[in-house]
Amino acid sequence: MRLLRRIIVGLVILAVVLVGVAFLLPREVSVERSIAINAAPDAIFPHVNSMQKT
Questions:
Q1: Is the pTM of the predicted complex or chain greater than 0.90?
Q2: SS3 string of the chain?
Q3: pLDDT for 53
Q4: Nearest C-alpha neighbor of 22 from the set 14, 11, 10, 12
């Protein structure tokens, strides 16, 4: 019975720690990517204008 109680208490402590850490994280996250393409804009525009596979 003591082992079960320790496991439950450990899980509750872990849950409280995880919730506490979650409150410290930022609400919004932003991810940006960029790439330099060595081609003329006229050659690239048809590919980025339409998001379909070409």
A1: no
A2: CHHHHHHHHHHHHHHHHHHHHHHHCCCCCCCCCCCCCCCCHHHHHHHHHCCCCC
A3: 63
A4: 14
